[in-house]
Design brief:
Helices cover 39% and strands 16% of the residues. The termini are far apart. The protein binds flavin mononucleotide (FMN).
Amino acid sequence: MKVLAINGGPHPNGNTAYAISVIAEELKKEGIETEVITIGNKVIHGCLDCGRCFREQDEKCVFEDDIVNEVFQKLKEVDGIILGSPTYSAGMNGVMSTFLDRLFFINIANGNVLRHKVGVAITALRRSGGIPAVNQLSKYLEYSEMVIPTSNYWNVIHGLAPGEAKEDAEGNQIMRILGKNMAWIMKVIEAGKGKVEEPGAEVKVMTNFVR
Ligand SMILES: Cc1cc2nc3c(=O)[nH]c(=O)nc-3n(C[C@H](O)[C@H](O)[C@H](O)COP(=O)(O)O)c2cc1C
């Protein structure tokens, strides 16, 4: 089995990357491989609300010159995802926000390939605002019918300079337990395939509060 981890921040060796590595280490012990993509050091367009993804349904966003379309193809191959972001101004970082808006719209427009896959959301931060950041990230998992494992506290780890998060013992335990629970749930889902019937997908009902 395989997991795709998105590091929304700009530092491939920063605190978000470190938190992802703690989770990945636990996944590895259970035979699950993790690929990490760092996006915060890249230029990523914001969603134009042009509607192309829903109109064409060809697994593509109108923007072809950044990595969003490429990452969507990877979502199809994996069994789970990790959404990791540094906390910026008590939320996820800006690049991650534009990236996820577009990635998850392509996903929903093209049959929701993430449905019943496993997803976790984590953040690294200096002091405050981690919970709203995790809540923001979790919203994408929640509207995609993903299965969300938990830990023994909310999924934050503390540190300012890259690498400082290694010293946050409680944050390390949170990520370690999250990794163990993620691996376990992935294995339970895998073991249930062909044995426990999956509920079928429903056609989305959309009401816009005006009709
Ligand atoms: C623009 C910006 C905004 C930030 N806002 C917050 C914040 O609201 N709360 C906080 O605790 N830390 C904040 N930080 C600190 C980072 O969250 C912290 O350094 C984090 O460990 C960085 O993770 P990284 O190494 O993966 O980039 C901010 C940092 C930057 C650059």
